[in-house]
Hints:
12 helices, four-stranded antiparallel β-sheet
Amino acid sequence: MAAELVEAKNMVMSFRVSDLQMLLGFVGRSKSGLKHELVTRALQLVQFDCSPEVFKKIKELYETRYAKKSSEVTQPQPQQHRSPEALSIHSSYDRGSTVARTSISTTNIDYPALYGKYLNGLGRLPPKVAKPEVRLVKLPFYTTLDELLKPTELVPQNNEKLQESPCIFALTPRQVELIRNSRELQPGVKSVQVVLRICYTDTSSPQEDQYPPNIAVKVNHSYCSVPGYYPSNKPGVEPKRPCRPINLTHLMYLSAATNRITITWGNYGKSYSVGLYLVRQMTSAELLQRLKTIGIKHPELCKALVKEKLRLDPDSEIATTGVRVSLICPLVKMRLSVPCRAETCAHLQCFDAVFYLQMNEKKPTWMCPVCDKPAPYDQLIIDGLLSKILTECEDADEIEYLVDGSWCPIRAEKERSCSPQCPILVLGSSDVNGLLPTPNGNGENGKATADVVDLTLDSSSSEEEEEEDEEEDDDDEGPQPKRRCSYEKGLVSAC
């Protein structure tokens, strides 16, 4: 069967456009397109649906074509005895075509050895002119081991809104072993994965992952789950979708067998490109350990940065004598353990690297929680000076950097807040004798007491209250019994 497949492929690759159209029309496939498109469809037909009738038709077309050449009739050379290196495919579509012919060794088109050579049903012929390639941004939680398919544009095959683009590739034995021997991040999820990444077709800068509308990914015979939308709590705001690499590993054949991926996508004017990669997924703990290894900034360098920030600016009318830095993480409101910030940030305030990496592992945004500017992983540093301060200053939650680069803890305000210097006035409370304070401000012992103002009363009740106060002034001085207290004045006892 393998020899028949090789023979059929060799015969198909020698067909002209008319022969390819006759073959595809025989099986009910589309006959439109350029020659390399027709060749690719015919090769897919041979690889996946080569029935005896199809093989007979291919042989018939081949014999009909070469029957006109007497030299080849008298000296037939069976294709299966020809070496693969001697075979070639030409990109000339017709005899009158102006396109130059380009030879491609069949070793690059042999399907069992395909590693992402075909997409959209199109053979990826070498470009005549070097064009800029689509690049994807590097993801901190994914280390690329191999590129199985370079970012390739999704090309619509017709005018339909819903398009399908197939991709055929196989893994090498080394790649299979890497996947099988990798550890499990969670049950059924290996750390070494084959992932699909999709982005806009834009060569001006590295692109972030972006899904096309109505995306669906089918691996061999099963559909792969695609991340859903984040629910939106704001009315009128469309929910956002986390565009991450799609893990295909659990649905693939971990052998030399060919894997077929079909991408269904909505064609609404925007152009998208897809790529396949063999990656190793990292955890936040691994990224933290890597940051501790290569990302610690020496305390002396941090001290020099503090001096630079507080250096006297001759053009400024305000002299800065110090800057305060909190030892509390702005993310979780807890004391810092690994003080971290981005080198691109202009502030000295740090956040905790542990929680920052954990949050981006769940929902990658990579935005600084202090200044709300981008703080990507490769720009993060651990502040060596603040790390040293955290070990030496355990009883303060804030410090102040001075102009000479030194620092001092700020404890005074905390202590002052614990022992207030002014008495606390409790509305509606009574004095030690169980009597309510009088509005005239004189207590039983002649000491001035705080005025109590009831804000629930209107201006008219305030005037009545003043008249009653004048009448009470005429009465005998002395403490009034509690039962004589009039609650019409709006004073309510805490009892």
